[in-house]
Amino acid sequence: MSNHQRILITGSNGLTGSKLVGLFAGMKGVSVLAVSKSANKIKNSEGYEFEILDITEAKKTEAIIKKFSPTHIINTAAITLTDFCEQEQELCWKVNVTGVENILHAIKNTSVHLIHLSTDLIFDGKKGLYSESDTPSPLSFYGYSKWTAERKIMESSVRYSILRTVLVYGISDTVSRTNFLLMVKENLEKKKKLQVVTDQFRTPTLAEDFIEGIRLVYESGRTGIFHIAGAEYISIFDFAERTADVFGLDKKLLVPVSTEFLKPIAKRPLLGGFTISKAINELKFKPTPLVEGLAIVKKQLFFKSDDMPSAVDVRVSR
Ligand SMILES: NC(=O)c1ccc[n+]([C@@H]2O[C@H](COP(=O)([O-])OP(=O)(O)OC[C@H]3O[C@@H](n4cnc5c(N)ncnc54)[C@H](OP(=O)(O)O)[C@@H]3O)[C@@H](O)[C@H]2O)c1
Question: Using CA positions, which residue lies closest to atom 1 of ligand 1?
């Protein structure tokens, strides 16, 4: 890539968005505009600009995009809580679908490369280890909203890459909502029992690996759909046990249950997860082994208090 690149990152306060800002901010030959619905939560404010943007506001979205004139937009903004989406369908649709339409409208007839993020929850969980050519059939409203947004992008004339991922684990100093790994850790540290499903299978993804997949797509300029995930296909219960092992916590507090027993508000696919051979072959993506990934997060949590090293620091020193 020779010319100066201008990257607009939406949802920059989120787990993925904040790590992307950390990756691209200050990078040579790159200008970054981070936008999110709330005020900037990223501690380090150097190397990028920040503006508040709710992507459901069509006019403001268009104005900010036109003013910044990006070469790339990485859209991480979304309502990502599956059960919340089931209960608040209008809001979920507004952000996950209308927000994407607003971005598409603002960049139509331009050469902007839209890198959009999506999920394995667009699949029905009957097969497992889905590839890019499998047909989505979402069970939940969240999955339906994400699949609809994907279709809107594919039907548009914009230059796009859609990166789907699975059960991302990791931390960031911006995110107040918990993720599965942190939930397991917090409960077991308090010696609380935690019911975990044994019949849902996933390919858990280290947050830094997802970021690396996005970077590889950005660098290569490749378009189309890519599945970015970890390489191990395990039950969510096994994932919880591995987490307990790495963090030295008592895994006997984990209580195995079925999805039927837990009755989540939104339906979940049983056999989820991705095959990632396309990403490995075409992007040279190398997923971090799960136990190593969990150890990286443990190290990040150890350093978190004041001066958390960047993902790259932690990776290099592992
Ligand atoms: N995390 C996972 O396990 C996972 C798995 C599969 C796929 N994905 C996909 O990966 C992407 C990123 O996920 P994530 O976990 O990084 O998300 P996240 O931590 O939940 O962050 C999403 C961010 O979106 C922002 N946002 C929400 N509504 C908005 C709006 N109307 N306008 C602008 N920004 C808005 C929020 O910003 P504020 O904080 O400023 O309000 C929030 O910080 C999503 O597309 C998700 O579907 C994630």
Answer: 168
